[in-house]
Design a protein that fits this description.
Mean pLDDT: 89
Number of domains: 2
Order of helices and strands: HHH
Structural class: mainly alpha
Largest sheet: none
Helix content: over 70%
Radius of gyration: 39 Å
Strand content: under 5%
Length: 104
């Protein structure tokens, strides 16, 4: 109500008659009342945004951890494959050297 009175006084100060200023102030205030952000409303939105951001951070950390685990598993598989391959090649070389005919 105080904002409507303030608006009406501003209209009167601008040269409008008292009745007209009150009607204009009432109409303007009724039109914008539901669209005006209040401190409590902004605080509520801020709190909601903080909670949303925290949830996104938590999900993102979980996803990063899962991707890192997948990468670690893939690296471990490649490492084991590489070691087995090297052992196999080393065994083939040793077998070749053992059974090859002597050099002249």
């Amino acid at each position: 109500m105080g904002d409507r009175v303030t608006l009406a006084r501003a209209c009167e100060d601008a040269g409008m008659q008292h009745d007209a200023a009150e009607k204009v102030a009432g109409a303007v205030w009724d039109a914008i009342r539901d669209n005006v952000a209040t401190d409590a409303g902004l605080q509520h939105v801020r709190t909601d945004l903080k909670l949303d951001i925290q949830a996104i951070r938590t999900d993102l950390r979980r996803e990063i951890k899962a991707v890192r685990s997948e990468i670690d598993r893939a690296i471990n598989k490649q490492t084991v494959f590489g070691i087995v391959l090297l052992i196999g090649l080393w065994g083939a070389i040793l077998t070749f050297l053992h059974y090859r005919p002597p050099l002249p």
